[in-house]
Amino acid sequence: GPDDFIWCTLRTGKVLHIDPTTGNYTTILNLTSLMPSGGSSEPGMLGMALHPDFQNTPKVYIVYCFMSGNNVRERLVSFDWDGSSLINETTLLNNIPGNYIHDGSRLVISPDQKIMMTTGDTGTGGALSQDITSLNGKVLRINLDGSIPSDNPDPASYVWSLGHRNSQGLCYGPTGILYESEHGQNNSDEFNIIEVNRN
User: Mean of the pLDDT values across residues 25-34?
Assistant: First the structure.
């Protein structure tokens, strides 16, 4: 992070603030009570990104899974950083269907200051990832306040690209290309260049 500390999510529901010099860390957010239990280790606290102007706007964006009745769900939230903990949780995108497998999810802030977020297909074998009305199995593009960017392919939809299985890596290269990695079932993992409105 811009404070020269490492910011780290744990699937168990914590965010750690780590001093890379000493290895000492503090837990700055603990949502372990919300995390799904049982099944595989795939759902939980997943992606995190810091506001692009963190010094003046100390916000942190996080995507995590939670239980809604007997169902796993996923939400994108923001927190304010007060210098010692994450406070003032604000929900930006809620109730994305989840599962005990294939939840994604990674976050990165684009050069034009949008949240790029991956979602998994929840193990549906591609049905949801190919459904343009579903947010699952997609790369989403979201304004920093949680609204839909007016220049998305569909100005009423967060969907930026579709057809993804279980995307757990996302980053921008030095020339502005957005790279994504996703897992195959037992092999055939993919390393993809993400382009707008592509399948």
Answer: 97
